[in-house]
Amino acid sequence: MTAKKQPKKNKPKLEEEIKKNPGLGSYLKKSGIYPKK
Amino acid sequence: MSVASLLTFGVNVLGEEVIIDKPLIARNIWTPHSNVYYVDKRVSSSGNGRSWNFAFKTIAEAISVMNARIDWSETPWAVGDICFIGPGSYDENLTSMPYGATLIGAGHDMRDGQQGTKIAPTTGDCIDVGAMINTRLINIGLIAPASKDCIDADIMNNNMLENCYFSGPAETQTARGIVTKDAVMNKIIGCQFSCLDKGIDVNYADANDSFSHNLIDNSIFDQIDSAGIEISTNLVGPSSKVRHCDFYGGGATMIYAIDDNSAILDVAWCVAEATNGFDGVRSVNASYLNGSIQT
């Protein structure tokens, strides 16, 4: 069984910032800022 | 709010009403729950940042303290802190911006940095972040080294940039002013972009990246090589306005005043001296390219 292909993330800095600050990530997701709805 | 309401009165031994001399409390009077912080590169070591006498020595320290005060589960989460930055040149690469807070530079000479404030790193970008969210920058010079960026932010939302100066080293035109991949609801007002390859450079990265609901007003783009504003293909608009701006090469030949490859910008009351004017924009009104009216 092959692993599901993950979409390419083209904002690596933002991903890193969200990893360090999950609260920011939750807000961005809830408000539809990132990832875009 | 009256002046009297900001003062505390008491009665002296003669029974006269006097103003009680007490230290100013470092609170932001615009919003509740907000603190005011101070940064001064000339202090010998950092204090708690709550007054000029006990200022932080670096901008990064202040940003770290302000961001630590945020409770992201609250609505609104922004505490609205304000940070005043003393005059001088700060050799810093800022890797986070204060979310929902304000940085204010000291004065107007943002390139010289004698009475004004500039962030001028020896190497690297001035500001290099993933997210710049609900931040306000006022009176700050951002001087990037050659081939680096003044602000490189993956996403920019709800920011206000007022009277800021974006520049590379004089006469090189290889640095960039603002570089982003997704920008919504930003206001760039009264700013100057000088000695750069591109003033504002927006690059598509992921699906639905957009450059929308932004206002660029009353700003100058000069001594720029490639483009004052460049918008890549595939970006989603609309409602981004460019108003009352001057685009001219100065010491360089500006190839594009605006190079809009997504046809999303509305331009009005602008003046350009460039090889190409407002290329690809959604609309252009009451604007001039090399002295000729553009419609």
Q: Biggest chain pair contact, residues each?
A: A-B, 19 and 25 residues
Which secondary-structure class do the elements of chain A indicate?
A: mainly alpha
Q: Measured on Cα atoms, how large is the radius of gyration of chain B?
A: 21 Å
State the low-pLDDT regions of chain B, or none: none
Largest sheet of chain A: none
What does this structure look like?
The complex is a heterodimer of chains A (37) and B (295). With 37 residues, chain A is mainly alpha-helical. Chain A contains 2 helices and no strands. Chain A has helices at residues 12-20, 22-30. In chain A, helix 1 (12-20) crosses helix 2 (22-30). With 295 residues, chain B is mainly beta. Chain B has one helix spanning 59-68; strands at residues 9-11, 17-19, 36-39, 82-85, 88-90, 102-105, 117-119, 127-133, 136-138, 140-143, 149-157, 160-162, 165-167, 176-184, 187-189, 192-202, 211-212, 215-217, 220-231, 240-243, 246-248, 256-260, 265-268, 271-273, 276-279, 283-285, 287-289, 292-294. In chain B, the strands form 3 sheets. Chain B has a 16-stranded mixed beta sheet that branches. Chain B has a 10-stranded parallel beta sheet with strand order 3-4-6-9-12-15-18-20-23-26, with helices on one face. Chain B is globular. At the A-B interface, helix 1 and helix 2 of A face strand 8, strand 11 and strand 14 of B.
